[in-house]
Amino acid sequence: xxxxxxxxxxxxxGFWLALGWLFWAALLAITIxxxxxxVQCMKLAQFSLWPFGREARPDPNASTLxxxxxxxxxxxxxxxxxxxxxxxxxxxxxxxxIPFGIQAFKLAGLALAPFGKRIVKTGTA
Length: 125
Hints:
By secondary structure, the protein is mainly α. It is built from four helices and two strands.
């Protein structure tokens, strides 16, 4: 069932949202300062392509960025968060799209604060 959900998600919203993350990754990778942000963008692009059956969990070993990092992440994070919210609203118009809309809303929260989190399979520690 997860595979069917992922294939439908990829066709409805995942591909375009992943392209958005790849755009930001390419833009941020231009400078040395932006490389950690580009890595997060790549992680979120991969998660946006195939989200069902995986989740974001806090990672105690990961470093979180300070206030400077939060300010630098604000523009791409906010724009992608708004993209997820818009996609979620459009997907929730139909009954069949509601689970996909809920997934988009979950990813919207992750778009605002991806640092200090890791992507794991659902049900693993």
